[in-house]
Amino acid sequence: MSKFNLSQLMSKESQKQSVAFKVDHIPIEKLFPSEMNKYVVKDVTELKASIELHGLQQNLVVREVDGGYEIISGHRRFKAMQELYEEGNEEFKRIPCKIQKSVDDIQAELQLIMANSTARELTDYEKTYQAARLKELLTELKKSGVPFSGRKRDIIAQLMNVSPTQIARMDSINNKLIPELKEEFSNEKINFTTAYETSRLPEEQQQEAVKEFKEGKPLTPAIAKEMQQEVVELEQKEKPMTHELDSYSQQFEAIKAGLKTYMYGFNNQSFRVGDKLKINEFDFDNQVYTGSFVEVRVTYLQEGGDDGIPEDYVIMSIKKIR
């Protein structure tokens, strides 16, 4: 698969704008952050000092919206200059901006996402959010008729410079992790691997995990995997099983005809309601299996030790299924 790049997802007009554009000094009060920007803009003290000393080294990228200018790229730079201006530095009353035209919402958000991915090191939560939004945007672009080929997962992996397997893990977190644990992930209280392994648990076990975590108990990938194993063992224990039994020809024919609706015998296979029994016909006279069989479902059982049934024996009501 050839290397994918953002320009393949942009309209021809938008691609022209990326080459030929207008730079203007826009009053700072006319600039506003994009609502599409979900990335955390943290402390910009160092960036402020750099801009104050060396000036703005990279223009903001904006688009005109309702008489103002929405920031597509440069939210941290904008925050730094906004703080400098509020502190009385008149130099930042007007901000040099690259103005893009003919950029729709989808393309604007794509540019915003990719700009953030290269501007600084994103948190694992931000990367995971980014993967989810790229998937949604690619779906919208496909519907709007923008041509591109290949699996969305592979395209997103190339755009984010990670493996498709990592994108699959992010999908699991985005789609399966409960909100309470996503909040812990967002606040960097649990790491990516823990979030992924926990997302593989059923919701009930996730609720249990976050409850214990908030009570001060640790939550690690190893603990999440232990919980997964417990779930698997429980499912195996509760999952209906198939047992094979033998029956002499006379009883076999009665079961096959639906006349005999119970089985009685030694409980050496941990029978349970819902289990399937494959009953093989055994020819006692010739001491051979005939090859005929009938399948039934256990609808009720009474284990030994009560009601006159010997210990280690069981009586089961059965219903023919084949």
Describe this structure in words.
The protein is α/β, with parallel strands linked by helices and 322 residues long. Among the domains are: 84 residues, Alpha-Beta Complex (Conserved hypothetical protein from pyrococcus furiosus pfu- 392566-001, ParB domain); 48 residues, no CATH class; 79 residues, Hypothetical protein (Archaeosine Trna-guanine Transglycosylase, Chain: A, domain 4). 44% of the residues lie in helices and 22% in strands. It contains twelve helices and ten strands. The strands form two sheets. Strands 1-5-3-4-2 form a five-stranded mixed sheet. A hairpin with a 2-residue loop joins β3 and β4. α5 crosses α6, α7 crosses α9 and α9 runs parallel beside α11. The chain is elongated and about 105 Å long.
The sequence of SSEs as H and E is HEEHEEHEHHHHHHHHEHEEEE
Main β sheet profile? 5 strands, mixed
Estimated helix fraction: 40-55%
Shape by Cα distribution: elongated
Give a brief rundown of this model:
It contains twelve helices and ten strands. It is an alpha/beta fold and 322 residues long. Among the domains are: 21-104, Alpha-Beta Complex (Conserved hypothetical protein from pyrococcus furiosus pfu- 392566-001, ParB domain); 190-237, no CATH class; 242-320, Archaeosine Trna-guanine Transglycosylase, Chain: A, domain 4 (Roll).
